[in-house]
Amino acid sequence: MSFEIPEAVKTYSQFFHPVLMWVLLGLTIYALYLGIGIKRTREADKDTRKELVKKKFNTRHYQIGSVLLALMVAGTVGGMGVTYINNGKLFVQPHLLVGLSMTVAIAVSASLVPLMQKGNAIARYTHISINLVLLGLFGWQAVTGMQIVQKLLGLMGVI
């Protein structure tokens, strides 16, 4: 006996990935804000630093980064899984390839954290560079992802 996924689940599961990714894009921008707060704290004079430290930019940045890493990996794999379930194949096109590259990039960026905690400036600048590229790619993915959503809605007869 084989298990068949209900059509409604197959249809509406296609929209979980884009919604999640838009949330992650917002969280990525927030992580950038927190990272800038860390830089400001590091470079501030003694009195200003005391006030900025209370805002715990470093702790919040680390926590948001961990959430981003976990959800981006899960969202990428989930999006691929839903595409495969619904189509019997993956569409090897720029949106997929860039998404996979972004998943690798965020993993590499996160792997630099132990070196950054030891004061390694090269690791810090590499982390920042990777994440700025990641944010740019995220913006591009948002556009191409919405094109895919529009195509899905067209196939469903919604638009």
Q: How are the SSEs ordered, and which strands pair?
A:
Layout: H1 7-12, H2 16-43, H3 46-53, H4 57-87, H5 94-111, H6 113-117, H7 121-155
Quick synopsis:
The protein is an all-alpha fold and 159 residues long. Helix content is 82%, strand content 0%.
Order of helical and strand elements: HHHHHHH
Q: What integer value in Å does the Rg equal?
A: 19 Å
Name the poorly predicted regions. Answer: none
Biggest sheet features: none
Explain this structure to me?
It is a single chain. By secondary structure, the protein is an all-alpha fold. It is 82% helix and 0% strand. It is built from 7 helices and no strands. The mean pLDDT is 95.
What are the main properties of this structure?
159 residues, 0% strand
